Structures are given as structure tokens and as C-alpha cells.
Predict the 3D structure of the following.
Amino acid sequence: MKSINWSKHSILAFAIVATWIKTVVVYLTSFDMGIENGMQLFILVINPLSFVLFIYGISLFMKSAKARNRYIIGTSLLLSIVLYGNVAFYRFYNDFITLPVLFQTSNFGDLGTSAAAIVNWFDIFYFVDVILLLVILKFMPKVTEQYSIRKEVRRAYFVLSVAILFLNLGLAETERPQLLTRSFDRELLVKNIGTYNYHLYDIYIQSKSSAQRALADGSELIEVNNYVRANQATPKAEMFGKYEGRNVILVSLESLQSFVINNEMNGEVVTPFLNSLTKDKDTYYFSDFYHQTGLGKTSDSEFIVENSLFGLGRGAVFFTHGENTYNSMSERLGENGYFTSVMHPNNKSFWNRDRIYQSFGINKFYDIDAYTIGEGEAVNWGMKDIPFFNQSVQHMAEMPQPFYTRMITLTNHYPFYLDEEDKYINEFTSNSGTLNRYFQTVRYMDEAVKLFFEDLKQQGLYDNSIIVMYGDHYGISENHNKAMSMYLEKEGITAFDSAELQSVPLYIHIPGSNDGQVIDEPAGQIDIRPTILHLLGIDTSKDMQLGSDLFSEDHEGFVIFRDGRFVTDELVYANEVCYDRGTGEATDIAACQPFIDRSTIELEYSDSIINGDLLRFYDGKTGNLIEENK
Ligand code: GP9
Ligand code: MN
């Protein structure tokens, strides 16, 4: 077998190695990747390789040395520009470029004015591989020789590139399960699959979205509008506007499910404070309330609460449709004189929050940079809830009033780790460490909420606010059914049980209302938007929303899950089986059929609004279609 003559291929080999090394050096010096262990570093080092091999490998198909060399130089220049573009963007925005920002000229307005501060003379380093290639080309005569390459060698080369890609994806999947199906965060994507692959992925997602958008037109909205208008609930007169002008504080309680509320674990109370609220004179507690999220988890719950629409069945709508036109609750409140914000001590680009919050018209995002995390104040995913609440109340004290702020807690997140001093109760005793620890982190969250109420009182913010708290999604997945059945003292967890376990608590706490109740009608996150707006006296009769006011006489106890399951007073539909809620036994599917039909329609309408970006054709003030394409 004839061996490969490396000197002939030296320019190709050199280009690959140079771009590879340069990319890794740039990762480590120009971005804050937060590498936590050897495996993450290893993934970071190999992640540019598959793409670099592939793109330079195309030169192997070129017949003339001139074309080949030109292609290699051109490619290295292009990759350098992409990488450097990200570096410059990152210096300014602390984020990686995503396709839509390239089309948003305002971003570059900002960049332009501070270009001098962003660009340095030593940035020439980012082009070092291009420069070296040019030098080689000039001084190494061999590289200008003509050669042809055997088919098998070429095939082996590309097989290698694909193999490295799969190795990379496999390792990334173990480090960060569901990375590509859920998308999470640009930083995590770059860290795990590399800048170049990330851009391809981003181009794929964004172009899919924009193709669907381009094909849509406003007429699709007529049918949706008819449905929404026919099903909307009239607010109860005595509740509408009853708390006009109050501040609204929404608290997303990470992974909190209802099964721990008013329940014990090995004789210990899990949520003493949240239990007391269920009996409190100023609290409406919804005991049959459900999350309606999909893969987008927290971000889906945010989406549902803000828009009273569903997230998507695939991926995370926060990531795939961050640039759409929305009529969010924040925007409505903003129009009504509210200062609107979100508080969450995490990287701002996580779940693409920084971008979609702009589309929601949210005035300010208090991200990780708005918090000071002292020693011992971080665990698991980041800042602990107690200092988070504490510093957030200080931020609130500075906000113009009335304000609407949405707080997203973090400590009670899988895998539910805590520092010793924050463990108020013992672990549970089952085969699942996850479930065992869950009770402890939930107990910690309960403590955090109690202290939060005290902080609010101390700051004088309590009396004039409405505090709404809800669980964002499940914390214990079906992987822990065995342990769950042990805790619930059941023989096993059926599809019926799993559906009911999707219940999360909802508290609407209104200081001074003196009307506290437990409301056991089925309800879902999609109902939060109209409920709050109506309490504040804001009309939503023209809004394109699928939920309905929980205090309205017309509110229907029918909750649709994102995956097509549903719950009513009497029925649960799961795993294509219709269950009688009273007995938990299967019943005639005919009983469920009308609800199956309606849930299919509602999910479809919600999807069509999002995929077609249809709200750009809708005038929320008049309820009319806007003819011209925005
Ligand atoms: C991340 C936090 C958790 O910022 O909201 O997200 P999740 O994993 O629960 O969707
Ligand atoms: Mn969450």
C-alpha cells in the first residue's frame, strides 16, 4: 500500500492543526467557559476537531494545487472571522452570536460606538493561522505541487471526522443530557459541541423557524381568534380590579410538586411555611393545579405564565422563537404603568433569556451580575435561595412602583445538593438518592420563602403587593417511580398516578384580603396571566390567550398538558387511556373524547401562533388583524 506523502499534504495538515489549537487557545483565553472537571476540558479540546477536519477536508476533492491552496486559506480566514466575531461580541455582550442578532442592526450600533474599546492591536493573534499559512505557501515549494488522492483515503478521512463528531456528541450527552433537544444555553453549546458546530446548529434552528414564519400569514389567526373569543371567561365583577395598583411579585418555585405540601416524610414536616399558607386567611391556595411544561422546563413555565400560550412540543420555545412578537403579561403591565423585571441569579443567556425578555418587553433582567455571591452562598446550580431572596428584596426597594417582578429560584434543582448547614431535615430512605435529597432541598426552599416574606415586611413592600408562587415543573421524574411508590405507599405508579403527580402548588397571597381559601378546581399555569391581570383591573378581552381567569365563574376545570394528557374534575387522560378520577380505573374512552379533541385543537392553535409568529399580525388594542407584514 502506498503511504500518504505528508509533505504534499503539509498545508492541509498544518491548517487543521493550527486552526484547532488556535480555537482551543481562544476558548480558554477569551471566553469564560467555566470548566469544572477534566472531562469538560477534554470535550472542549476535541470539540473543534470534527468540523475543522470536515471543512478543510473538502480541499481533498480539488484537482489543482492552486484551487486547493486558495480554498484552505479562504477557509482559515472565514473561520478566523467567525471566531473573532464571537470574541468581539463576547467582550461586549458576554454572549455568543446567534443568527438573529446579525440581522438586528441596533446591536451593531452599540458595537460600533465602542469598537475602539473592543478591538486591540494584539487581536491579530486571532488570525495567526491564516498568516502562518500564507508564509508556508510562500516559502515551501512542495505545497504548490499537484497531486491526486485515492478514494479510499479520502473516505477514511471523512469517516474519521464523523467518528470524532459522534465521540464529541456522546461525551457531551453524558455531561449534559438532552443538550441538543433542549438547547439550554449558547455557552453550554459552545462548551460542548464547539463554536463552529454551534453555529451550524443555530443556523439550522433559526432557519427552520424563519421558513415557517415566512410561509405564515395573518389569515390563520382568524380561526384561532374565533376559538379564543368563544372560550374566554368573563372576570368576576367583585374581583376585577380589586387590587389595582399593587405590586406583583411572582415566584417560580424550582421543581416544587404538590405531593410534599401538607405531607410528612418519615415523621418530619417537609414544608411547614408553605403548609401554613394553605390555611392562611390571605391566601388562595390551588390544590389541583398543574404545570404544563415540555422540554423547555423552567423556560416553558415562564413562557406559559407570560403569554398564556403553550410552549412547543419539541425543543424550547425560548430558544427557537426568541425573536417573535408577543403580547406578554410584562408588556401589558408595562403599558399600565408598571416597571417590569425578572430576577434570576444565573448566566443571562441561559435559556436565551436575555433575548426573549426583550421580545416580552421586560424592562430589566437582574441576572447573575446583579448579585453578590459571598462565601458559602452558592450550591448546586448557583446562588442559594436565601441570599437570592434577600438581595432581590433590596433590588425591589429601589424599583419604581408599582412593579411587576418575576423571581426564579434555583436551589431545589436536580440533583438536589445542599451544604450540611442547610439541611433542616433528614434524607428520605429509598433506593433513589434523588428523591431522598429532594425532601431536604424542598425544606430549604420552604425556609427561604418564609424568610422572604419577613424581608418584604421589613422593607415595607409586603402590604402593597400580591405574591404569586407556583411550582415550575416536576422535580422527580418517572425514573424514580419505584422510590415514589415507596414514599406514597402504593404498589406502583400507574400512568394515572404519573399524571396526577404533575400537580404543582399555586399560591395567590394577597395581604389584607381576608378571603383565603383552598380552591380545588383543576387549573394550570396557563391561567395565571388572565387571573393576575384581572385582579389588577386590566382588561384582557382582546388578548390572544388560551388560559382563563381562575376567579371567573366561567373558568373550566380542564387542564391540558403539553404532551396531550389532560385532567378534569372527573377524568384523567394519560397513555391513551381514559381514567375515572374517582376510582383511578380505566373508563370508556368516549368520556374523554370531547376533551381529547379540544386539547388537540388548543395545542395546535398555540403552535401555529408561535411557529407562524402570528401575533405580528394582531393588534391587541383593537383585536383586529394587521394587514401588512411587519
Ligand atoms: C436555569 C434554571 C433551571 O436558569 O431556570 O432551569 P431548568 O433546568 O429547571 O429548566
Ligand atoms: Mn426549573
Observations:
- The first helix runs from residue 10 to 30.
- Residues 6-212 form one domain.
- The radius of gyration is 27 Å.
